[in-house]
Design brief:
By secondary structure, the chain is of the alpha+beta class. It is built from 17 helices and twelve strands. The structure holds protoporphyrin IX containing FE (HEM). Belongs to the cytochrome P450 family.
């Protein structure tokens, strides 16, 4: 194939945001290791993506644009962007308080929040699922877990929404400046919050993080602020899209909706399939600190590599010839890479799963006639793929 005929990754192709998967498939088939003319490498095959994620020790994580002086520098000190020895130390400290037990203890509260949102949807008949359920649920859960005072929430929510644009291709200077400003403000607000919490300790995650000690070490102030910002942002900017993308996938596949109603014990596997089928995080990135061999190519030291989790999740070698279909009873669903893999595997996976299972599970059982009711609005993001609006209507409720 000549250079001219080659298919390059191009999120600006018509229809990409509606359905990026045919493009990913073509890349994975024809050009799975791509040395992109815009200066990054792209991996789209499952085995290659997983190997890169597991090669944690030979890979430097840096903020998503790959720049040292990124405006979103507040995330640089978070574990997501650190290598050993900092990464295991930071992760161990946060893991100490963000335990499986702490997460399972949230089940009754998550159920209460979900049922409250479903009650409102039932009362209204027509509503926006993102506004009523998909956004407020993870937002309330992480805010309550951290013990944030109510008054700060609205502003922090706006800032977080701006900051996560650093995970996308930042196209213009104005956006880059807005991200920088949001990062600085979020950092300052979080610093104040930590000071307030030190003076007003309570039974919450932030108080526990302040006190957390591992092998005689605690988090210093900058590290504490960065981990809190990461938990906060990661805690709700992703799970919203699990709930919204999952619900949309169900509504577009009525046979699967019916299957889940008949077999509620499929809910846990269904959530794995939603994550696989339309991943809320489509890519992750690494900067190589040594040459790296993959698929017959040698990626040089210093290269910026994009691992396409969403493409890997549709790999027929792993998920079978019907990998492009939504199948809630798919046995291999849980092998998806939507939570990453290796040393940086998502620390909040158990929480995201629990929220997804309760939200979608209870909604499907309660609203047998859930249906789309108006124009769906995509968020048009390449990485944190999701919906701004999912108008739905319900009649029958039980
Ligand atoms: C890391 C996805 C929810 C906290 C990651 C990574 C992915 C991911 C792909 C790895 C990034 C990389 O390797 O570069 C998701 C998805 C979620 C979700 C799809 C929801 C459906 C959450 C929640 C929390 C959270 C609810 C916490 C409240 C974290 C943290 C890391 C992380 C702290 C960094 C781990 C490390 O660097 O060691 N997540 N996440 N995530 N996630 Fe999540």
């Amino acid at each position: 194939m000549s250079e001219q005929e080659r298919v390059w990754f191009n999120p600006f192709l018509p229809g990409f945001f509606d359905d990026p998967y045919p493009h990913y498939k073509q890349l994975a088939t024809e050009h799975p290791v791509q040395d992109h003319p815009l200066g990054f490498w792209l991996l789209t095959r499952y085995d290659d993506v997983l190997a890169l994620l597991r090669a944690g020790q030979s890979v430097e994580i840096r903020n998503m644009s790959g720049q040292q002086q990124d405006p979103a520098a507040v995330l640089n000190a978070s574990m997501l962007d650190r290598d050993p020895p900092d990464h295991p130390r930071l992760r161990a400290l946060v893991t100490k308080v963000f335990t499986r037990r702490a997460i399972s203890a949230l089940e009754p509260r998550i159920t209460e929040l979900v049922d409250g949102a479903l009650d409102k949807m039932a009362e209204r008949g027509s509503s926006d699922l993102v506004e009523q359920l998909a956004f407020p649920l993870p937002f309330a859960v992480i805010s309550e877990m951290l013990g944030l005072p109510q008054i700060d929430n609205a502003r922090i929510r706006d800032l977080s929404g701006t900051l996560v644009q650093s995970l996308e291709v930042v196209a213009d200077e104005e956006t880059a400046r807005a991200i920088g400003d949001a990062a600085a403000e979020l950092q300052a607000l979080t610093r104040d919050l930590v000071a307030w919490k030190r003076a007003n300790p309570a039974d919450d995650l932030l108080t526990a993080l302040i006190a957390a000690e591992h092998e005689g070490q605690v988090l210093n102030e900058d590290e504490l602020v960065s981990q809190v910002v990461l938990l906060y942002v990661a805690g709700h900017e992703t799970t919203v899209n699990l709930i919204a993308n999952g619900t949309l996938a169900l509504l577009r596949n009525p046979d699967q909706f019916a299957l889940l109603r008949q077999q509620p014990d499929l809910t846990a596997n269904a959530v794995e399939e939603f994550l696989r089928y339309d991943s809320p995080v489509q890519q992750t990135r690494r900067i190589m600190i040594s040459p790296y061999e993959v698929g017959g190519f040698e990626i040089p030291r210093g290269a910026f590599v994009v691992a396409c989790l969403a493409a890997a999740n549709r790999d027929e070698k792993v998920f079978g010839p019907d990998a492009d279909k939504l199948r809630l009873d798919r046995k291999e669903a849980r092998h998806h890479l939507s939570f990453g893999g290796g040393p940086h595997h998502c620390l909040g996976a158990a929480l995201a799963r629990l929220e997804g299972q309760i939200a979608i599970g209870r909604m499907v059982q309660r609203f047998p006639d859930l249906a789309v009711d108006g124009e769906i609005e995509l968020n048009n993001r390449i990485n944190l793929r999701g919906l701004n609006k999912l108008p739905v209507k319900v009649h029958a409720t039980v």
